Amino acid sequence: MHFHATMGENFKMMVKTMFGLENVLAKELQQLGAQNVQTGNRIVHFVGDKGFMYKANLSLRTALKILKPIYSVSVRNEAELYQAFVDFPWENYMREDQTFAFDSVVYGSTFTNSMFVSQKVKDALVDRFRKRTRQRPDVDRHYPDFRFHLHIDDQQCSLSIDTSGDSLHKRGYRNLTNIAPINEVLAAGMLQLAGWKGDTDFLDPMCGSGTLLIEAAMLAARIPAQLHRKVFAFEHWPDWEPELFGKIREAQLNKAVNPSVAITGFDKAPSAVRKAQENIKQAALEDFIRIERKNFFHSEKSRDAKLFLMTNPPYGTRLEGDIESLYRQMGDTFKQQYLNTDAWVISSNLEALKFLGLRPKQKIRLYNGKLETRLAHFPIYSGTKKLHKQTPKP
Ligand SMILES: C[S@@+](CC[C@H](N)C(=O)[O-])C[C@H]1O[C@@H](n2cnc3c(N)ncnc32)[C@H](O)[C@@H]1O
After folding, report:
1. Could you tell me which of 233, 293, 194 has the C-alpha nearest to residue 67?
2. I need a labelling partner for 290 at 20 to 30 A (CA). Which of 33, 91, 170, 266 fits?
3. 3-class secondary structure, 205
4. pLDDT class for 206, splitting at 50, 70, 90?
């Protein structure tokens, strides 16, 4: 069996990410030691070896998937497409007793139906194996050993192999979700865009299932993002080196530090508090994150020192009560009870954000699933307070 790459041999890879996180991902890649890092649209290209592929899958916080390009060919029609993929040495990548799946995207006018293209290339793969071994690999749409990505831009076909498997936002710590949980990759991206470094106290006053808190703690503690994940696609590959992976995992873990700041979450819903606590336990972060069942509007800042606050409040897209009053109260609480705070709020409800009554210093466009949102920065200084009614401290 031909191995994909021997240790030390560099090859091209590309990482898929979300809109607006490309530069954060590029920085993460550079910090990990990637070469030739180049950003595109929801994608970042880089070069690294097999060990780096393991490290990137284990550690990147804003990666959805890492793909390895393996074949590039130009075809003019269906017959050429089929032949090009019968000629491709699939046996260098997988065995006939393993399962596979295809994801295809097509642009341009040569091919118009991605399902049809996937079917043709699948037939080519199966026919090649059948001819050589009299056996054929089976398709498994949900948990394939190998997931191939086919990208066709008019006549140009690029085939990549998915090195990650399930999307990398599936960190392995979140089994329970509450209403409208935020994606882990988005949470990690928001924190890095906001410059969270783990050197001040952190509060998510409407924490739901605790995603922002867990990602903030993992960033502060420099814990690899995928530490709790069970499996990566490359573990099914013929060149899988568990010892190499073990060494890389250990080296990454040795960089972890104990965060010395308080990381706290509030939620007024008991079910959210329970779920957040369970997820924090799964992430083994009970010693670093405290959850309180509390209404944010009845709380106040516990220390004079600078606080970093980030939250994903209800957007008012479901039955979430009076959104105007919720955002007004949030703004009042910031101004009256949370001086010396860097507050960051993500919302798709741009009208509601205005009810905070604060001027954003910065607004960053991001997508929470299909919803276009703004991550808005509201620095709350004592000057902010003067403009508004003060509540005396008890
Ligand atoms: C969109 S969810 C947050 C989801 C969270 N980021 C996650 O990943 O699971 C909003 C949360 O705000 C909470 N909430 C709404 N008003 C609140 C208040 N006044 N004080 C505390 N929590 C509140 C809700 O109970 C809900 O769990």
Report:
1. 233
2. 170
3. coil
4. very high
Q: Which residue's CA is minimally distant from atom 12 of ligand 1?
A: 206
The pLDDT tens digits for 275-330 are 999 999 999 999 999 999 999 999 999 998 999 999 999 998 665 668 999 999 99
Q: Is the CB of 181 under 6 A from ligand 1?
A: yes
* Concatenated DSSP letters of 32-94: HT-EEEEE-SSEEEEEE-HHHHHHHHHH-SS-SEEEEEEEEEE-SSHHHHHHHHHSS-GGGT-
Alpha-carbon distance of 322 to 251, in angstroms, equals 50
The answer for residues whose C-beta is within 8 angstroms of residue 221's C-beta and 6 or more apart is 198, 256, 257, 258, 259, 285, 288
Token digits of residue 248:
């890389």
pLDDT tens digits for range 138-190: 999 888 999 999 999 999 999 999 999 989 999 988 876 666 789 999 999 99
Ligand 1: which atom is nearest the Cα of residue 295?
20
Residue 198 Cβ contacting ligand 1 at under 6 Å: no
Q: Are residues 157 and 70 in contact, defined by beta-carbon separation less than 8 angstroms?
A: no
Q: Where does the chain show beta strands of DSSP type E?
A: 11-16, 35-39, 43-48, 65-74, 99-107, 138-139, 146-153, 156-162, 201-204, 263-267, 289-293, 307-311, 341-347, 362-368, 371-380
pTM > 0.90: yes
